[in-house]
Amino acid sequence: xxxxxxxxxxxxxxxxxxxxxxxxxxxxxxxxxxxxxxxxxxxxxxxxxxxxxxxxxxxxxxxxxxxxxxxxxxxxxxxxxxxxxxxxxxxxxxxxxxxxxxxxxxxxxxxxxxxxxxxxxxxxxxxxxxxx
Length: 132
Hints:
- The protein contains five helices and five strands.
- The strands form two sheets. A three-stranded parallel sheet has the order 2-1-3, with helices on both faces. Strands 4-5 form a two-stranded antiparallel sheet.
- The longest helix has 14 residues, at about 100-110.
- The radius of gyration is 15 Å and the shape is globular.
- It has a single domain, classed as 3-Layer(aba) Sandwich (Alpha/beta knot).
- Helix 4 packs antiparallel against helix 5.
- Helix content is about 30%, strand content about 10%.
- The chain is α/β, with parallel strands linked by helices.
């Protein structure tokens, strides 16, 4: 994958209707059913991985930022493809590190399989697993 860095804002680089801000707080988990490779003729989208460097998770912060910028939002379809596991801490989280989100998206890009992609990026410590 080619990665370019720039001091410019994504808001200045891409049309608003092309930007999809990924946040675990979005209600939109089905957006990715439209996630396609450029060669299929589907419109290109720019996915922004909403990352924070923070010791505590502040709910809805990335969603709020996207809404303030009038951006479409989406989340990974964890709820749609995975089930909660029984664990001693009763811990379940859909919040992933940026590298985990990238692993999910890269695997989906290659396999076109959400179960395979989620298995690649969602660790068992998040309290979710694929159904048998």
